[in-house]
Structure formats: structure tokens, C-alpha cells
Amino acid sequence: MDVSETAGAGTPDLFSEEHSAEVVGASFAGTPDARLRQLMTALVKHLHAYVKEVELTEEEWASAIDFLTHTGKVCDGVRQEFILLSDVLGVSMLVETINHRAGGSSTESTVLGPFHVVESPPRALGDTISLDGKGTPCLVSGRVTGPDGEPVTGAHVDVWQANDDGFYDVQQPGIQPERNLRGLFTADEQGRFWFRSIVPRYYPIPTDGPVGELLAATARHAYRPAHLHFIVTAPGYCPVTTHVFVADSPYLNSDAVFGVKESLVRDVSLVDDHRRAVEAGLPNPFHTLTFDLTLRRA
Amino acid sequence: MDVSETAGAGTPDLFSEEHSAEVVGASFAGTPDARLRQLMTALVKHLHAYVKEVELTEEEWASAIDFLTHTGKVCDGVRQEFILLSDVLGVSMLVETINHRAGGSSTESTVLGPFHVVESPPRALGDTISLDGKGTPCLVSGRVTGPDGEPVTGAHVDVWQANDDGFYDVQQPGIQPERNLRGLFTADEQGRFWFRSIVPRYYPIPTDGPVGELLAATARHAYRPAHLHFIVTAPGYCPVTTHVFVADSPYLNSDAVFGVKESLVRDVSLVDDHRRAVEAGLPNPFHTLTFDLTLRRA
């Protein structure tokens, strides 16, 4: 029997506090897929560094096991608490940002969020997406262009938002009309899109699960600033998943999921123009929100 | 509106790849409990460092979300897949080691494992804990002493092990007798304990869940070397949770959960002594396993 260090080799066979990450990391050395091997070895390194830095107690470890178990248990077809956890720890935003580093003047991306779970219904330019009649009407418009300012004719503009009570349609089946505040628009030959909706409102992420308990225990609020989601796609261009944020919204500097980027913030304006109000199908004066998007070429 | 960096302060308000850990860490600055604040801030730091080092893709992130969700879903009253995950990543062993740094000659600890989920039945010295008649009989004995060699009279010696098929009783309800291979003994006035069991065998941890899939994907085996679990407690002394490992067992240098410490390995001997066999209640010759334990004073 030889349970001592392998003669002359760098990695001891047996676990020790000092060499924990090397010993455990070495157990993944035979992973056939090189990327998975890298992911697991690095995970072990950072996880062990964390446990050592804070000298995690056994009670804290047991609490973490319970928390993760509970988080898994509350997930179902329309609720993903692990994504919510990733969101409030800034991991979703970090992954999003790393994978979509914006180039030049192209529109920055932000988190998809957990509510793009149904397809948005195709609608004609100018249609309203507000089916429940709640909230302050607003004309949303913009233009999709490429890097040289060329219009992206026929770009698909997929939008969704929470209603005036702070809930997405899928969170309130039977209460909100189906596909309320969702729409898929096709930009015109000049790359323009416009539709009617409501002025977005800030709202809290779900707080009735383990993530809500974590926010409460850490005295963090659960609010996201007012925003409208976009996914814009067009042949020959990179798709962009983003939001437009309302400039004077509460929580703009403390989004619970860290989604705000300064380049994505726009003012909602009140326009007093009878002719335009009639065109838009809104009472005068009316609110407007303008968000132009620039796509990168694929 | 001011969504730029707070004038003069070190932490920007808004998320960026460069400052992600600082921005998210700052969101926990108001945590009332100082220890929880430390735990969350350090967690964010290490988690973000991991994501940045490997430049986690969105597909990999989604796989991680699915894996964690699945891991939570398979947990139930007798199965704890998150503990198993912690075990195979060496985190359980690291937490155990940090919290029970052995001093001087005291017996080293190792992982509790997920199978101490029922109370061991009190038994008299010399009793057998093997109720299913399977395996090679073995006399297990030892002595519990304090740091100066003084006997720890009346020490409680709680033991449990897998059966000869590699399963604990709680994994096979209705197949194994209840409380098979579990016992709670009380050391005599000289600190000695002895009981009959079977020679421990190596066995695999459960592989029919997400952790098994992880081991398969990384070409890691699922085996633990042969061992017998101990928890020894006595008034005035620190309790110790540990195993004795069998010296010639396969997987001694590659325990799937990293539990082996060199100081915990013992030979199983074959003894040819008719008088002692009769005393032990075993056929001659018989196997023996001796494991003396030294407790630290509380």
C-alpha cells in the first residue's frame, strides 16, 4: 500500500486542506471533452478558494445545501428559481455581457429574463399590445439600422413588458388576456417600427421563494426599474436581446438583476400634437418612447 | 437622472464586465448580519472570477441551470443529491477538514456522508451489527483515549457501514433488515470497545442521478474504498466523526468523495487463535480490524 504522495509528482493522491483544489481538480484530468475538463477544474479551484477564504462552517454549508435544494424544488414549467438566483447574483448579466460584447455603436444587450416563455403574436405596425386597458398609453417607436446607418428593412422586432400591476401575462393566467403586452413587429422599408403600449412601470421580481428570502435576509429590494424588452433579428445581422429603460424610473441605479446599461436609458416624453395623436390613435397629449437600435453585421 | 458612477466613490452604480463583482458585491453592503454579508460578497467575487476565467457561454450557463434544477428535483427524504454533489467536488471534505483541524495525536476526522439518517440502536459490547448474514465476519475493536493516554470510560461509539452488496440499510428498505450494520456501543472502564461486523467492502455512490451523469461525463469512477463509519463522543471531549479504511482496498487513492486520510487506514488481519475465536463468537481463523481513537479535550 502506498497512500503517500506519488513519488516525484506534483499532485498528492490524498486530500489535504492545503492541496484540496489540486487533488480534486486532478480527478477531472481524464475528462474526454477538453472544455468540460477546463470548466470543472476551474470550478473546483474557485469553489475551494471561496470555502477557504470564508472558512465556511458546517452549519453554513448545511444551510447552503438546504437553500439549493429548496431552489430546485420550487422550479416548474413557468417558474425558474435558479435563473432568478443567477440574476440576483449578477451571473446572468455577466454571462450575457461576456457573450455579447458590443462593438462600436451597436446597441448593447442586456438580460433576457425569465418571461420570454411564449411566442409573441405577429402584429401590424401601429397596433396596440395592451389588451387589458390598464396603464398610461404610450407610442413606442424607433428605427433599426446597420453599422453604416443603412435601414434594416423587414427586421423583426419582438417586444414584451409587464402590465401596469407589475406582472407579465404568464404570471397571471386567467387574469390577464393571453399574450397581453407582447408583439412581433416587422420594420418597414426604412427600418422603422411603431406600436402602442403603456408607459412601463417598475415592478418586483418574485419574492415568494428562496431568492426572495435571500433578498430579505440581505436587506436588498426586489425591484427592477421600468423597462420594455426587445429582441431584434434580421438576416445578415447579429440578433440583439435588450431592454429600453425609462429615464426617471425608481431603481434605475439599483436594478435587482443588474440589467441597466446607461446606453439603454430613454426619456418618456409628453407630446402635445393633435395631428400626431390622431395618427397614433391616442388622446392628445400623449406619451412617447423612442428607441433606435443599431445591429452589427453577422 | 444620474446613472454614471457615484461622484468620487469607488464603486460604479451600473453593471459592467470589468466591475461586475464590485457592483454586485456592493448590493449586499446593507446586509444586517456581518457574517452573511461576508459570505455573499465573497461568493459573488469567486463566482464572477470563475465565469470570467472560463468565459462561460450561454449554452453552458443554461446547462448549469438545468443541472442544478435536476439535482434539486431528485432530492427527497432519504436522498440528498446536493450533498453528493458537494462530496464529489471535494467541498464536503474541505468544510469538514477546515472545521476539525486535528491537533497533535488526536484522531483525524473525515466526511459524515449522507447515510447517517437514522439513529444507531444501542448494543452490548461483543454484539454483532450484521443482521443479514452476508459478508465475511470480522471482529472490530479499539480503545478510546484522551490526549494523555487516559481511557475515556463510557465513550459512545456510533458505527455504521454498507453491507456486502455495497448498500446501506436505508437504501434498501424491505430488502435489508432495519438498522442492519448500525450500532451504538459504550466503551468499558478502560475505554475499550469491540463488536462483530463484516469486513467492509468498496462500493459505488449512487450514480442514477445528475451527479452520476457528471461522473460519467468526466470519466470519473464512483467508488469509495472499503470503510466503516465512526462518531465517537464523550463528556469533556470533542466529538470526532471519522472512518477507518481497509488498507488493501481498491480505490484507496481515488475515493470518489476524497475522504481518505493516511492516518485512518488500517490492515484487516486474519487471526488463527481458537480461544480468541470462541471469545469473539466467530469461527477460527477470523478477521480482525483494530482502530484506536484519541479524542481532544473540549
From TrEMBL, chains A, B:
It comes from the Bacteria. InterPro entries: 1_2-HQD/HQD, Catechol_dOase_N, Intradiol_dOase_C, Intradiol_dOase_core, Intradiol_RC_Dioxygenase. The keyword Transport does not apply. Its cofactor is Fe(3+). The keyword Iron applies. GO terms for molecular function: catechol 1,2-dioxygenase activity; ferric iron binding. GO terms for biological process: catechol-containing compound metabolic process. It holds the Pfam family Dioxygenase_C. Keywords: Dioxygenase, Iron, Metal-binding, Oxidoreductase. Residues 140-168 form the Intradiol ring-cleavage dioxygenases domain. PANTHER family: DIOXYGENASE, PUTATIVE (AFU_ORTHOLOGUE AFUA_2G02910)-RELATED, INTRADIOL RING-CLEAVAGE DIOXYGENASES DOMAIN-CONTAINING PROTEIN-RELATED. Belongs to the intradiol ring-cleavage dioxygenase family. This is Hydroxyquinol 1,2-dioxygenase. It comes from Virgisporangium aurantiacum. The lineage of its organism: Bacteria, Bacillati, Actinomycetota, Actinomycetes, Micromonosporales.
